[in-house]
Amino acid sequence: MDRRAILEELKKVLEPYTENKELLRNINEQTDLVKDLKINSSNLVDVIIDAEAKYNIEIDFDSSEKMITIGSCIDVISQKTN
Amino acid sequence: MSGYHRLAVREMASTGNDLVFLPATRCEKTCRPRFYSRILTAAEQQLHARNDSLDLPFDHYIWLCWSIKESVYKYEKRLHAGLSFAPLQIEVQQLMPPAGAEEFYQGTARLLTAGMPLYFQSHIRDGVLMTMVSEDRSFADTRWGCRPIGSSAYADQSAAVRALVLTELQTLLSRTDLQLQKNADDCPVLLGGGQPLAIPVSLAHHENWVAYSFRYPL
């Protein structure tokens, strides 16, 4: 999967946890999950588990700690899927 | 010398708090190893298993640990710019249940990579779990508040918790020129007359509840 395809799927993972759907439509690689998308921190574990299911991958603890921005999420998912 | 000037010269002044509205969490999901193993260290899992006196369901224990970790993170982030939240890098090391008239779970937790042990106080009431941390075991200079609001929308939570803490601070400091802003690390900064004041503030919200903590000497 290329980064654009991962991004489109990632939007679906983030959708249940993002109140502002307009913001979600316009995310870029610099968008921060908590600071910009306002995802409640208590949902961050859900995002990781849902991403594992969506991409059929396992995200180890060290990698999950890097998933702060959309770009870093794509980096981790790209590494695990390719 | 006024109270907050004394705080200004003190080293390592920070505060951290967190709030979890337990009815909004799902027990079945929380209790899956795949979920809680991303939050609890092996030592924390053992801490619950061997501590009968806690009398706390496992899912509530998980969220208690989560709120303690979030609070420690907020405390440490003010002191370590760029710190990101990694639940397994913060460990609850001691946990005592409320005793007698004491309403708080108490104990210590620390950021494993750098931090000193911090004391926490947590209480669970009406499904609302609230935690605050301090390097001062007595919490004598920690002020806190927690209340329900009429909306769970982010903008409303944010506005309500700011209004709540500013009302308290305006009364305490007898001034009306207070504002709250976030710095580059997303830490709340209290401004008076447009200038930063040395009163660390922490804010939390979840669903229809908001909470704050701040440090102010008696």
**Major sheet characteristics of chain B:** 5 strands, antiparallel
Please describe the biggest sheet of chain A, giving its number of strands, its sense, and whether it closes into a barrel. none
Please provide the count of β strands of chain B. 11
Order of helices and strands of chain B: HEHHHHEEEEEHEEEEE
Shape of chain B: globular
Arithmetic mean pLDDT of chain A:
94
Radius of gyration of chain A: 11 Å
Q: What's the number of helices of chain B? A: 6
Mean pLDDT of chain B: 92
Q: Radius of gyration of chain B from the CA trace?
A: 17 Å
- By DSSP, the count of extended strands of chain A is 0
Percent range for helical residues of chain A? 40-55%
Task: Describe the overall structure.
The complex is a heterodimer of chains A (82) and B (218). Chain A is mainly alpha-helical and 82 residues long. Chain A has five helices and no strands. In chain A, helix 1 crosses helix 3 and helix 1 crosses helix 5. Chains A and B meet through helix 3 of A and helix 5 of B.
